[in-house]
Amino acid sequence: MAQDMTTIPTRVDAHVEIDALHHLRIGGCDAVELVNSYGTPLIVYDEDVMRRTIRAFHNVFRAAGVPYQISYASKAFCTLAMCQLVYEEGCGIDVVSGGELHTALSAGVPAKAIHMHGNNKTVEELRYALEAEIGAIIVDNFYELNLLDELTREYGREVDVLLRVAPGVEAHTHDFIATGRQDSKFGFDLASGQVQTALRQLTDLPFLRCVGVHAHIGSQIFDIEGFQLMIERLAEVYQYGLQKLGLPFRILNVGGGFGIQYTDEDAPPTTEILAAVIEAVKMAFSSRRMPLPTIWIEPGRSIAGPAGVTLYRVGSQKQIPGVRNYLAIDGGMTDNPRLALYGAKYHAVYANRADAAPEDTWSIAGKCCESGDMLIWDAALPNPQPGDILAVFATGAYTYSMASHYNRIPKPAVVFVRDGSAELVVQRETWADLMRRDLPLPKRT
Asked: N6-(pyridoxal phosphate)lysine (modified residue): where (predicted)?
């Protein structure tokens, strides 16, 4: 029977609905029924939200009439299904480990559509990348440059590389996710001349074909100024490599970091920022009389984040008069450590009575034996009732991918939803799964 739908009137919840039973619906699926079918904790991804986001990025580039490549930053959320989805939508895959590379290849993504990041790629990871003949490797430091030179000589095989630049640009974001400033573990330092030294070294390495430069200034960025300054500095580097050294530059990779909305306090102008980034590249290259490069971007959070909703069963409560109300859920920092890591904020409702008015503030606690295991501080919610299911929005990025087995808690299941249908894409782990690699002590006489 058809049910009346009402869009939740907050932007962070704009892609979900409430039905006549007052249940939250995600991708046309009743969240309560999803929990009944798949259990909790459960991470639910709305496929259409991710596909629409990717198509919006494509549309901005096409409207600007520039050569481009969108590469999904798979560290945000990397599974077979996710790699398949973004590749179907015309994206390459950015990987940062052998495990992510193996996942992307196993998902059927062509090796040439994959490029590899990382500040400490192992010999095994670089061998895997070279043997698979991936599209490009982003070189992060002198140690890696020399190691990659040795390996490519051994294989007798050329590989496209980009040089990662630490441009000394401060993004207005949390210290732990700011990556472009001078004091960073990532990239060749621009201010001290490391970039120029590395480029000169690349002119003498026979199997490393340096096709461009890369920088990434951080995550959860809401304004354009940092990007504009980064692009100016990258353009100077590009000009030096192209015109002074004769390197075969054709790519300018400006990274990702586009912010998303976690709460109503956030107002990210994502497509506007991308349009401004493209315009800044055009201006920087035109003023230097250089041909426009292929512009690469690496969105991860902005694709996966808004599409994810995590569902939990409500458990114990603790009320401390005049201090705080605690409400515990059957998950926490094991499936989402972001608050503990850098103070992340979220918006939540009860999925089984999604339009109920708030009555008090409740701090959402996880079930781990850790005081820092909190998910939300002082959320405005109706007072909890037995059977409530808490829905936490914008949990699609850096939640499951950062999940752990602390307290030997299994990782949650993941489903993709679309047009009223749900597809299990990650099975729930069991207690037996946790012990799969354990070995007992040998018997001793």
From this structure: 75
